[in-house]
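Incident log, support desk, overnight shift.

02:14 A customer reports that sequence design results differ from what the structure should imply. Their input is reproduced verbatim below. On-call engineer (initials T.W.) acknowledged and began investigating.
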């Protein structure tokens, strides 16, 4: 592997690493050499087994990012005896309903996980990066809904649009500190969040017809983009939202 993409000696903190995109992200970073601190709200045994096959270190932190309560604990446990070099804010939830019927509870639940907790966890990790002046890489997992409106997911669209804006703001503030803040916008991937869409035969057909690649993304398809943005190869990249979407936005 080119040393510009080698993450050996680095520690990556990945939220929502128990399944789906977060799990695939953690595995890709480990295969590039990084030790993994995985945050999730369910068992991470499968993720741990996959990371160990790469020969990298693994620690799990059980936490629910629906509130800010675990933020300081996450950072404390993740930096115990070291530092966080790479933060991937992947944890996210979605609620679907016609906008006219959307509830305050569903609005708040999504915004709390997808935007509020992301901001304050990023702030807490960045304070450590500021303190030791070691810089770092922060990668937010945005969405195609950072660019488009979508239907029946108002709080998800608002949160992911907000996350794209937050990515740019933090990049502007922290680039001079040696911290790269960027985002990846996955297209339609096979995850728990898209299960309802994939089971809707009409909607599934509409989505596939729009994707130039002709298929839903596999979580492993994110690996290259994540490793790139986490590596020295991306040292002069700040504030981008990189689509990994099978060509959806090019259509």
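02:41 Re-run completed on a clean worker. Output:
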């Amino acid at each position: 592997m080119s040393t510009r993409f080698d993450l050996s000696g680095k520690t990556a903190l990945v939220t929502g690493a128990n399944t789906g995109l977060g799990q695939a992200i953690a595995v890709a970073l480990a295969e590039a050499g990084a030790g993994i601190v995985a945050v999730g709200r369910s068992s991470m045994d499968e993720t741990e087994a996959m990371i160990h096959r790469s020969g990298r270190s693994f620690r799990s932190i059980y936490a629910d990012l629906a509130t800010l309560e675990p933020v300081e604990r996450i950072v404390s446990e993740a930096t115990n005896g070291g530092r966080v070099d790479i933060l991937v804010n992947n944890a996210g939830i979605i609620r679907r309903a016609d906008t006219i019927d959307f509830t305050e509870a569903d609005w708040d639940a999504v915004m709390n996980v997808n935007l509020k907790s992301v901001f304050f966890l990023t702030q807490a990790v960045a304070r450590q990066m500021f303190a030791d002046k070691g810089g770092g890489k922060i990668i937010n997992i945005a969405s195609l809904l950072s660019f488009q409106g979508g239907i029946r997911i108002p709080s998800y669209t608002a949160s992911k649009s907000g996350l794209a804006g937050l990515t740019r703001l933090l990049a502007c503030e922290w680039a001079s500190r040696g911290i790269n803040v960027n985002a990846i916008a996955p297209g339609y991937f096979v995850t728990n969040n898209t299960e309802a869409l994939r089971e809707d035969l009409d909607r599934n057909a509409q989505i596939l017809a729009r994707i130039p690649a002709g298929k839903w993304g596999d979580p492993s398809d994110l690996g290259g983009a994540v490793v790139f943005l986490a590596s020295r190869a991306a040292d002069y990249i700040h504030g981008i939202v990189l689509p990994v979407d099978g060509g959806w936005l090019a259509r």
